[in-house]
Amino acid sequence: MVSRGPGLHIVVPSSSNTFQKSWIASGRILFLIAISGLGAIGLVVLSALWAGAESDAAALDRQRQLVNARLREQVDQVAHVIGQFGNGYLARVYPASRSAGVSSSLDTVLTGAAGSAISETAMSAFGYDQAFVVDEKAQLSMLTDAKTEKRYRWMKPLFLPLLRDSRLTARHSPTFSDRTPSSLESRRASAVRPNHALANLMRLEGRPTIVGIVAINEAPDGQPQPMRQFLIVVRFLDGAALDELSRQQGLNGARFARTADADENEVAFQIDATANGEPIGFIVWRPDLPGSRVIGRLMPALSIAALVIAVLFSVLLVRLRSSLGELKRSELHARQLALHDVLTDLPNRALFAMRFEECLTDTRHSTERSAVALLDLDRFKAVNDTFGHAAGDELIRMAAERIRSVLRPDDTLARLGGDEFAVLLRDIKDDDLILLSICDAIVAELGRPFPLLRGEAVARVGGSIGVTIVPDAGRNADDVMRYADVALYEAKMGGRGQWRVYSPSMDGGRNARDILKNELREVLAKGTAPSAGNPQPGPGGSKPDFGSLEVYYQTVHRAEGGYSASGAEALVRWRHSQRGLLTPASFIPAAEEGGLIDALGFWVLREACRAACTWPADTFVAVNVSPAQLRRPHFAEEVFAVLEETGLPPSRLELELTESSLIEDNSDVYTVLKSLRSRGIQISLDDFGTGFSCLSHLVRFDIDRIKIDRSFVSQLGAKANGAAIIGAIVTLSRNLGISTTAEGVETEYQRDFLTALGCTDLQGYFFSKPVPLRELVGFAKSESGGGSRTITSGAIA
User: Fold this and answer.
1) pLDDT tens across 252-261, in order?
2) Surface-to-core class of residue 781, CB atoms within 10 Å of its CB (0-12 exposed, 13-18 middle, 19+ buried)
3) Which of 71, 86, 354, 528 has a 20 to 30 Å separation from 783 between CA atoms?
4) pLDDT on residue 437
5) Containing H/E element for 569?
6) Cα separation, 487 vs 499, whole angstroms
7) How many angstroms separate the CA atoms of 320 and 334, rounded?
8) Nearest-5° angle of CA 186, CA 190, CA 195?
9) How far apart are the C-alpha atoms of 34 and 95, rounded to whole Å?
10) Rounded Cα–Cα distance for residues 456 and 387 (Å)
């Protein structure tokens, strides 16, 4: 109908037309939504089927690759084990006769009884199913019963190609020709020449079998070769070995079959012979197909989803009404995330800045006093590098909880990033007592051990705190934070695990960390610049003197032979003109942060090599190497240049590494260490057992020496665990032919106990403290003229 009014005409549609148009519009929308939903479901189904098929194919291919890799690994393991057996274990049977040059049965031809003993040892100690000792004509050289002899006659034709393999007769140079041998290697070098061991996968008695062979009576170079004899070992793969493979690789119902008779739900993996590639048989198992399993579980859900869509249409309008409220809640949640740290749920840097600005505003109109504390975990990076980022995140969360537990309800704890925290303490009336109690409590809490990775690792980090009082330090937020950072660095320089309140005397308003880096840079620049032609500046133009660097030495003593000195460890000190004698803990972090660690490290290396040239020829000098130095691409060449410059033989230099240097298993580090050892430089692993110790490092990086940490030595006589751990490390080192040095020896009891355990060398205050070269005693050769070399201001103009 039409409504009329003065000067205004409005056409109002009828209610029926409005309803009809609205219904049509809604119907079209619902139709489009239905079509879209059906199409989306179809795409989801097709995508799920395709993803499931691809997942099944990938899983099956992965299982086959794992089985193939495991078979190759077992073949290589048999070759490696019998090679070690032939080269190491058998050579220890007659060490006395070999060292004296007297012929023994092992030097000529093994007797039948000796052959039987070797066969029994191979089967009982290494778990082989059968072992034979034969001569080069494939005749048995052992005492056997009729059953074993008959069994060997059946196997003999298959062994002949292995016996005739040319690799068994090849002559090879000694294993340790590329480096200076250790003491254990020297004792074995005259008795053992490495033999080649071979292992092949073949069918034996109708069963898949690994057969290994190694020569066991090689004559030394230059001597006539008697009748050569070999050890042949047999390991069947279709019994216990297949069960073990099934457990390790998750092969359900694994069995061996001569033909590919797999059922519908099974797969067959063909085993080929190593020598000629002929099929030996098949490993059949029921594969784990995650794609099919997921699809089977997903299809009912997709069917139900189609029904749920119809219900969703009816509640669509209701949801539209509530969407506005949900949007507001999402906005609040986003704001929460923007102002809080995700890992710890603490206020982040932005929220801390807001609260700090509010605090500064309040203090301008009142007598309220507040304090800002910056907190830094002392050894967090080492934990992160050693145990991984998951452990680092866990440590951050635990540290946050411990700090929060000692604060007052109105205090603000924020995480600024990494391992850095900030604390805002408001209303500090009796600031000395409150700061003393809170800061001491935080330091104590962070000093307690942190159990990580469900108790598999324990980290001891500690924390340092720098405090600024507001408004004593000023009312500008940037200045207050900078002053707190200066106080924090002073706490770290004081030995860490401490807290300091800022005072203007700390650095005159400048950043102490930058000051220390600049001073160290000046000292290094003076020491590395040529002194010739550089006149001393006059009084008017002289630069400030920041002292000099010195190299101290702590002797290392042999555990036998009267505890004579076998070498010394070089330790850097900074004799600062204002701060006194600084230990490495005070300035090494600044050197690393300022990119000075390379220059500092090579200066210490050069000075230590020069000093060691004046020592007896049978002694060595040990120099610490940082992870940053190892990552340099030309580190090895630079070390060789220092040795050539100073004239020190490479065999008298020992480089000490920490396990954090090897934790990444970097191939570049491996290449650098291999190059160093090829010239005869010794490599030692410092503080062994205190980090995430990985035994594979000892083998992969071919470590020459393990240094037992002083924390274990200090437990001798107090805790039984200390002796047990040291004994285990010494036994492991002895078996691997690695020397051991026990650090921190301070009593005669510790010295005698460590000697009895089998440590090869000892080091500690009981023998000598770190001293300058001029005060170094214990070497028979005179050290006159060596002098303590220092970097002084007179080194350059």
Assistant:
1) 767 777 777 7
2) exposed
3) 528
4) 87
5) strand 565-576
6) 8
7) 21
8) 105
9) 87
10) 10
Quote the CA–CA distance of 485 and 468 in Å, as a whole number: 9
Neighbours of 526 (CB within 10 A): 22
Other Cβ atoms within 10 Å of 120 Cβ, number:
12
Name the 3-class secondary structure at 330. helix
Angle between helices 389-405 and 380-387 (to 10 degrees): 140
- Which DSSP helix (H) or strand (E) runs through 740? strand 739-742
Q: Rounded distance, CA 684 to CA 372, Å?
A: 44
Q: Does pLDDT of 100 surpass 60?
A: no
Choice among 52-66, 418-432, 644-658 with the minimum mean pLDDT: 52-66
**What CA dihedral angle connects 679, 680, 685 and 686, to 10 degrees?**
-100
229, β-bridge pairs: 135
Structure confidence at residue 394 (pLDDT) = 92
pLDDT value for 274: 77
- Measured from the Cβ of residue 60, the count of other Cβ atoms closer than 10 Å reads 16
d(CA 455, CA 400): 19
Residues constituting the chain: 797
Structure confidence at residue 557 (pLDDT):
93
Would you say the C-alpha torsion 722, 727, 730, 732 has a positive or negative sign?
negative
Dihedral, CA of residue 24, residue 26, residue 29 and residue 31, to nearest 10: -70
By CB atoms closer than 10 A (0-12, 13-18, 19+), residue 505 is exposed
445 vs 324: which has the higher pLDDT: 445
CB contact burial 651-667 (16+ within 10 A = b; e otherwise): ebbbbbbbbbbbbeeee
How many angstroms separate the first and last alpha carbons of the chain? 106
Give percent above pLDDT 90 in the chain.
15
What's 88's DSSP letter? I
* Residue 20 predicted with pLDDT over 60: no
Could you tell me the pLDDT band of residue 71, with boundaries at 50, 70 and 90? confident
DSSP-derived pairing of the beta strands 565-576 and 548-558: antiparallel
* Cα(571)–Cα(187) distance, integer angstroms: 32
Provide CB contacts within 8 A for 195, sequence distance 6+: 83, 86, 87, 168, 214, 215, 216, 218
Question: Beta partners for 772?
Answer: 552
Instruction: Give the pLDDT band of residue 605 (cuts 50, 70, 90).
Output: very high
What are the C-alpha distances in Å from 704 to residues 182, 619, 653, 661, 792? 7, 15, 12, 16, 36
The DSSP code for 504 is G
**DSSP label at residue 92:** G
Q: Is 713 exposed, middle or buried (0-12, 13-18, 19+ CB in 10 A)?
A: buried
Q: How many beta carbons lie within 10 A of that of residue 16, not counting itself?
A: 8
The whole-number pLDDT of residue 721 equals 73
More confident residue, 206 or 24: 206
Residue showing tokens 């080192």: 733
Cα–Cα distance for residue pair 62/77, rounded to 1 Å: 22
Q: What is the CB-side half-sphere exposure of residue 438 using CA atoms within 13 A?
A: 30
> Smallest Cα–Cα separation from 683: which of 659, 663, 713, 709?
659
CA–CA dist 659, 683 (Å, integer): 12
Q: Is there a cis peptide before residue 537, judged by omega within 30 degrees of 0?
A: no
AA letter at 171:
R
What's the CA gap between 80 and 75, in Å, rounded?
9
What's the confidence (pLDDT) of residue 189?
A: 42
Distance CA(489)–CA(189), nearest Å, equals 54
* pLDDT value of residue 324: 56
Backbone φ and ψ for 532, nearest 5 degrees, come out as: -70, 135
- The pTM (predicted TM-score) of the whole model is 0.43
Distance between CA atoms of residues 481 and 421, nearest Å: 12
The predicted model gives 32-53 an average pLDDT of 71
Report how far Cα 130 is from the mean position of its chain's Cα atoms: 40
Q: Give the 3-state DSSP-derived string for 47-86, with helices as H, strands as E and coil as C.
A: HHHHHHHHHHHHHHHHHHHHHHHHHHHHHHHHHHHHHHHH
Mean pLDDT within 567-594:
84
